[in-house]
Every structure is written in structure tokens, then in C-alpha cells.
């Protein structure tokens, strides 16, 4: 098969379109002929060597296509062997594309429990863009964050795939949402998804400006932080609010005022990805509520994955970047 192959960790230019061995059939596994694959920031970290993937390697966690043995149109759940404990993944858990070949290819092999029917009404790029950010965001907002209709949420970083999905899912269940961004244009785009407004995190006192967008100005019930700015995020919460952390794109260490934290009765919740029951909950929400499909920012052909990575790293887009195959 043809695939995007990484021979050496490093910059996007190290990705090359080349031949790669076909996945071999095996009981308990399904082979999918991919129609589209979506990029995630996680792929950049894999490419840089953060997860010590074997080389040569094929990146990619997200994909949608046709199951070879049945002809069924499917999406791939990239969370492998989560385990039976919903509170946290088990010892065998891994993300597709970390240590076994991923979705930047014509074919991919995954455990049979990791293929589910493609949701009706989604295009191939939308279907490919759904699994990782949909699963991650559903778990962050609802399984961990306990967000309910009538509550309020602040989503940090309006342009990324998780952020756009978070706005859509939260609005879909009847929560009010605000966002942060470095771009007025991205805030306006988030309004188009249903956000009530947003603030520029480049402003020196953005947490207070964000609080003013919350109901009654008392702070948000939940802040979704994928960037690692805990101290500022806590300032945007109401007393008793929940800070849900699922990333560290701007800071890998955080300092907080411990007394302020416990007197504020805040919850600090860490989360990443999710398991099969989280994904089932996501699909049920998509069918029972009016939720916007994944936002697609730009589509590249599979053989231009290096250019797609460069575009992702520039950070100017709004929504997901997808690789497609004719």
C-alpha cells in the first residue's frame, strides 16, 4: 500500500509518501480501506519522537473508510484497549498511530471493537475528523466535567479541533459557551457555532473579561483548558466550579494559589481520550441533539501530509485539517 512514512523523528519535511507493507489479516482485527484521515496535534508530537514510536512508522489516529471484509462504511475509534474501568485507562491502553501503524495510509488494521458505523449525514472528511476530538471532548465535558443543560462553559483556544467540537457539543446540550482566542476572527467563527462571545487571551486581564461574559458575571461552571494556564483559568471559574484539563500546548507546568483553590471549592479534573462507553455516549448525543458536524478547515491530498503538518503548526486555521484519498 501507499502511506505517509516517517523514517526519522523531526520536522514535517521528514514525512514522505512511499510504499509500506500491507496490514496482514488476523482474527479479532479489521482492515479498513481509508477514504479520509484527520490530523491532530498529537500527530505532531509523535512525529517529533515524544512517544518513541518504532521507525519506519505511519502516523495517524483518526480515519474513516470501508471495512474490507464486510464493505461497511465505518469510522475508527483510536482508543485501543481502554479496559473495563471507566474512571481511567488500563495498563494496555494506547492511541492508534503511537506504536502501531496509523491512518495516514491507504489501509489500516485495528481491533474489531474499534470500528463503528459511519454516522449518517457526515461526509468522509467530517467522519474522519470526528473520533479523536469527539471522544476526547465528550469525556472532558460530560464524563469528567459533568456539564449539564443550563450551565456555562469557557473554552480556551477557539480555533482547534477540540475547541470547535467543545462549542458544538456544549451548545447542543443547552449550555452557554464563551471562548478565548488570540484572533477576533476566530471568536466570530465560534459565534457561528453557537458561542455567546469571547475574549482575547492576549489581553492582560482576560480572565476577568471572560467572567463578565458568564451568567451574572460570577464565573463559569466549567473551564475547558487545553493549554495549561491553570492559574488564569481558575480566576474565570465561579466558586465551586470545575477546571477540566486536557492539554498543555502553551505551558507544561502550572502554579496555583493553594488557599484560593480550596477556599473556592474548585474541582481540578484531568482527562484525555476516552473509552468505548464514552464513544457510545458521543454517538447517542449526535443522534438525539442538534449538534453541528466537525468543522473542516482545510483538506489536503494524502501525499501532501508534510504540507498539512506545516499548516497545522502555523496555527492559523479554524477547525480540523484532513487528508483525503481519491
From TrEMBL:
InterPro entries: ADH-like_C, ADH-like_N, ER, GroES-like_sf, NAD(P)-bd_dom_sf, Zinc_ADH-like. Keywords: Oxidoreductase. It is an enzyme of class 1 (oxidoreductase). Pfam families: ADH_N, ADH_zinc_N. It comes from the Bacteria. Residues 10-323 form the Enoyl reductase (ER) domain. GO terms for molecular function: quinone reductase (NADPH) activity. Its EC number is 1.6.5.5. Gene3D superfamilies: Medium-chain alcohol dehydrogenases, catalytic domain. SUPFAM superfamilies: GroES-like, NAD(P)-binding Rossmann-fold domains. This is NADPH:quinone reductase. The lineage of its organism: Bacteria, Bacillati, Actinomycetota, Actinomycetes, Frankiales.
Amino acid at each position: 500500500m501507499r502511506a505517509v512514512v516517517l523514517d526519522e523523528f523531526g520536522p514535517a519535511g521528514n514525512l514522505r509518501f512511499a510504499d509500506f507493507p500491507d496490514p496482514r489479516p488476523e482474527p479479532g482485527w479489521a482492515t479498513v480501506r481509508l477514504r479520509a484521515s484527520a490530523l491532530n496535534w498529537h500527530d505532531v508530537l509523535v512525529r517529533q519522537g515524544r512517544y518513541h514510536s518504532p521507525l519506519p512508522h505511519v502516523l495517524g489516529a483518526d480515519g474513516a473508510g470501508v471495512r474490507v471484509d464486510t464493505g461497511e462504511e465505518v469510522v475508527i475509534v483510536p482508543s485501543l484497549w481502554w479496559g473495563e474501568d471507566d474512571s481511567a485507562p488500563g495498563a494496555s491502553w494506547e492511541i492508534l498511530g503511537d506504536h502501531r501503524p496509523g491512518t495516514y495510509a491507504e489501509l489500516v488494521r485495528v481491533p474489531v471493537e474499534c470500528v463503528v458505523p459511519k454516522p449518517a449525514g457526515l461526509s468522509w472528511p467530517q467522519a474522519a475528523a470526528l473520533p479523536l476530538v469527539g471522544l476526547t471532548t465528550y469525556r472532558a465535558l460530560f464524563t469528567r466535567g459533568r456539564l449539564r443543560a443550563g450551565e456555562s462553559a469557557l473554552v480556551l483556544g477557539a480555533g482547534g479541533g477540540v475547541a470547535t467540537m467543545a462549542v458544538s457539543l456544549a451548545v447542543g446540550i443547552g449550555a452557554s459557551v464563551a471562548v478565548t482566542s488570540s484572533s477576533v476572527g476566530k471568536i466570530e467563527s465560534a459565534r457561528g457555532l453557537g458561542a455567546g462571545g469571547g475574549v482575547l487571551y492576549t489581553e492582560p486581564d482576560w480572565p476577568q473579561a471572560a467572567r463578565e461574559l458568564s451568567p451574572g458575571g460570577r464565573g463559569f461552571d466549567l473551564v475547558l483548558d487545553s493549554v495549561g494556564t491553570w492559574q488564569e483559568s481558575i480566576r474565570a471559574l465561579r466558586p465551586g466550579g470545575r477546571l477540566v484539563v486536557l492539554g498543555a500546548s502553551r505551558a507544561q507546568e502550572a502554579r496555583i494559589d493553594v488557599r484560593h483553590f480550596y477556599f473556592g471549592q474548585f474541582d481540578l479534573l484531568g482527562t484525555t481520550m476516552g473509552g468505548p462507553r464514552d464513544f457510545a455516549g458521543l454517538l447517542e448525543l449526535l443522534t438525539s441533539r442538534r449538534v453541528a458536524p466537525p468543522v473542516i478547515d482545510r483538506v489536503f491530498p494524502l501525499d501532501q501530509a508534510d504540507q498539512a503538518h506545516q499548516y497545522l503548526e502555523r496555527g492559523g486555521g479554524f477547525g480540523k485539517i484532513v487528508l483525503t484519498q481519491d
